[in-house]
Each structure stands twice: as structure tokens, then as C-alpha cells.
Amino acid sequence: MATVLGTYGWALLVEHEAGLRVDSVVRAVVIASALGRVQRLFDRADRLSACVVLPCAAAAGMELSTLIQQHPLAGDTAFVVGVAGTIWVRRFGARATRAGTLVVLPLTAVLVVPAGTVPMSGQGHTAWAAVTALAAVVWGTVVTWTAQLTGLVPRPPSAKVTTASHAPRRRLPASTRMAVQMAAALTAAFAIGRNLWPDHWAWVVLTAFLVCSGARGRGDVLVKGAWRTLGAAVGTVAATAVSGQFGPRSDTAVVVIFVVLAAATWLRELSYAYWAGCVTAVLSLLYDWFGQSPGDLLHTRLAGIAVGAVLGLAASWLILPVRTEAVIRARTAAALSGLGELLEADWRDGPAVRLAQARFAYRVEQLGVGTAPMRILAAVPTPRALSARRHPDHFALRSVTALRRCGDPVDDLADAVEEAPDALTTDPLVLRRRTHVAAHALTLRRAIGRRAAPPTATEAGPPEQVRTTGAATPPHRSALAALDSIDSQLCVLGALLACPPHPRPARPKPGSTER
How far is CA 212 from the centre of its chain? Predict the structure, then answer.
């Protein structure tokens, strides 16, 4: 909200000094509200890129708004191609994904300003839109840097942590599928919206965009569509009940809009329904500020939201669908890959160990985000016959639980390695158990990819007894306990994947001096 309010103040100043119109202020707030959320993951390179990408996108958004008003068909087509393109570029990695997110911010702002409430923009508006977007990036960078420096918000993971390994693809990438789905949903939304509600077509398009954007699978689209529709309906009704008290151009309405926007940002972490309800209430209050009574448009708005949600769901479920089970299995395999990197790293290389530890934690977190819709769907009462077929839900919830339980042992193992890297690297018993757990993780990854498990050294006979003269040190005990805990959770994953039990190395006999 500090980013939003700072950008709002700058936009007001520019509007007054440059003789612009109020739509420039609204667009600046829309861009800043989304930027304030996504910038938390930006590193230095992302922010430098944002200084170029967002101003150019803001200028393009202003021109696109003019094109939509003057030539609707060409403008609608350009909008669909632009939004779909920002999704398609995700195939090129995390930085391309963030750049695409920046480009889409000014495009969504095109849908927010009520049609016909402001005249068409000129070249002056386009230039100032770029300047305001640059000011938003600079101000947002200052705010976020200060918050991270003071510990108010955590620092984002480095690009080395978030970069995923690119395995050979035998199927169409998920980003391409999602781009096609978005293009189909937006095309249908434009066609239906302009024919059924010529003056309020943006409601259908905006809802279809929100339902399809960022969806991680069919389950995620279903949950998001339901929350969007429910939250939007409640937000519209609530805003309609209070909006008549302010009237057009009311300063009080502006204050209420920012308060509700702040609540939306805060409550989004709890549920997408709160976000959808608050943002829809903000849009209703904005329409009231422009002089369009939300009460007279209540049924039209609800109908447009419902149609847009149905279009988004239909596109995501019927056109090159991304199966939720496939997403969960891929993210589970990525987390196991991070675990394998830790076990196979040179333990004398401290930075490499910490990098592998951070990668594992990040990928488990991403798996948890992907399984969040599954928890909601699993809580919905269903007939017994359908409950018995919920294998994807069962695997998703149990797998993320097992990998999360590996978090503390992985941290303990990394701490032990940091404390005694040379001793743990050369210890025969630690080496055997480390090799065993790494082979176990590899076997599970191959099972997820439906490939045969490779022969491992742990299938051989029992290990030779290694005698030592001293008692095991705390780092040795901690490392062995951590490896055993990790292996136990891998056994849970193996049971979910119906893998045969992985043979464990023989343990030392009671009284043996093997460490």
C-alpha cells in the first residue's frame, strides 16, 4: 500500500501539472497495486528490467485503450494476443515470467476504467503513462528495499534457487497450453460481452482473465473460479448497499476505496475469495465515483461475472487441459531433485550445500502452493463412490506432508555438514547412508516419471564393519539421524507411488564400534 499511495500521489501531481484526465490516475493505481505484490520476488536484475519493461508496457496500454475505443475488433484482437503472449513467454524461465507479469499489468488496467467515462487519450497521455510507470517502479523499489533491510518482509530467493532444471519435454509445455486457454477464454468473453452488454463488456473479459491467469491446473481453475464468482457477488452486493451514500467525485469514496484495497491485499493470503470480493467492491465504488449507479447495474454485473467465470473454466478444462495430478507429480519430482542435489553435492563446498538446501525448501514451498486447491476440494463433501476415486487428491496431500516433514532433517543435515564437512565426507557409515538415501530419492523420481528404477549399490550385501577408536561426535549423530528421518519420509512417498520397499543398508550390531 505504500507503493500504491506513493504512486497515487505522483499521478495526482502529474494530472494537475500536465492537464491530464482522471483515467491516468486510475490506471496508475491499478498498476501500482499489482506491482506492490509481485515486486516482492524481484531481485536487482528484475528491477533493472522493470525500469524498461513496465514503462513501455504502460505506454502500449494507453495506445491499446485508444485502439479499443476507435477500432474495437482490432483492439480486442491486440488485447488477446498481448495477454496470451505474456503467458507463453513463461517457457523461457523465471525472469521471462516476471517480465510477462509486468507487461500484463497495464493491459488489465485497460479493463478497469469504465467505458465512455473519459475521452480518448492522446500522445501526451502515452508519454506520461510511461513516466508514471517508471516512478512506480522506482518508488516501489525504495519501499521494498527499506522493508527488506529492516526485516519487515523477507528477502526473495536468489535466481539460482528459483531456477528449475529443464528436462526434455515430450509434450506441449504448460505455458503454451495456458496461453491457448487464455486466448480462447478472452476471445469468447469479448464476443459474448460486446453482444450482450455493449457498454459493460469489460466485466466479462476481466472475470475470464482473472479465472484463467496463474492457474496451476484444472483443480486450481475450479477453486479460483468458484471463489471469484462468490467473492465478486458478495463484494458487488456490499458495495451497492453503501455506494449511494457518496455520490460522483466524492473524496470520501476515494478514501473508502483505498481502505478496501488495503484489506484486499491483507486478506488475499487467507483466501482468494476475500481478494475477489474486496476488489469487486472497489470497482463498484469506482463506477459510483464516475457517476454510474452500481444499484442499477447489479444484475448486469453479476451476470457478466458469472459468464466470465464459466468461460474461464470451460477454456481451462476443455482446451489442452493441464491436469492437476501432472502438476503435483512434476513439483514433487522437482523437490526430490533438490534433495538429491544436497545428498550428491561436495560437502566440503559450503555454498553448494546451502544452495541445495535452499532449492529444496523453495521447491517444497511451491509444491504446497500447488496442492492448496486440493485441500479445499478434499474438504468438499462427496458421495462415497466419488471419494474412492480421489487418488490425485490423496497423493497430493500426503506427498507435500511427507516432503515438508523432511524440512527440519534437511536443515539439521546441512548444519551438521557445515560444522564438520571433512569428517562427514570421509566417514564410511555416513557415506553409505547418504548414498542409500540419494538412491532412494532417485528411485522415487524415476517412479514419478514412470521409469524403471536403476540398480543401486544398496542392493548388495551388508556393509563391511568399520571400527573406530572414538565415540561418534554430535555432527555424526545429527547427520545420521537426519538421514534416517529423510529416508522414513521417502518410504511414505514410495508407498503412495506403490513402489517396492527400498532396501536399507545394514545397521551395526549392538555393541559394535562402527560409527
Answer: 13
CA distances from 156 to 43, 163, 344, 357, 362 (A): 7, 13, 26, 15, 11
Nearest-5° Cα angle at 334, 415 to 372? 95
Query: Which residue type sits at 385?
Result: A
C-alpha span between 308 and 197 (Å, rounded): 12
pLDDT at 164: 66
Is residue 291 left, alpha or beta, with left meaning phi > 0 and alpha meaning psi from -120 to 50? left
Residues 6+ apart with CB under 8 A from 489: 402, 403, 405, 406, 409
Name residue 436's amino acid. Answer: H
pLDDT tens digits for 367-386?
A: 888 787 777 766 666 554 44
User: CA–CA separation, 46 vs 95, rounded Å?
Assistant: 7
- Tell me how far the alpha carbon of residue 56 is from its chain's centroid: 24
pLDDT digits (tens, 9 = 90+) for 22-66: 888 988 999 999 898 888 888 888 889 999 999 999 999 999 988
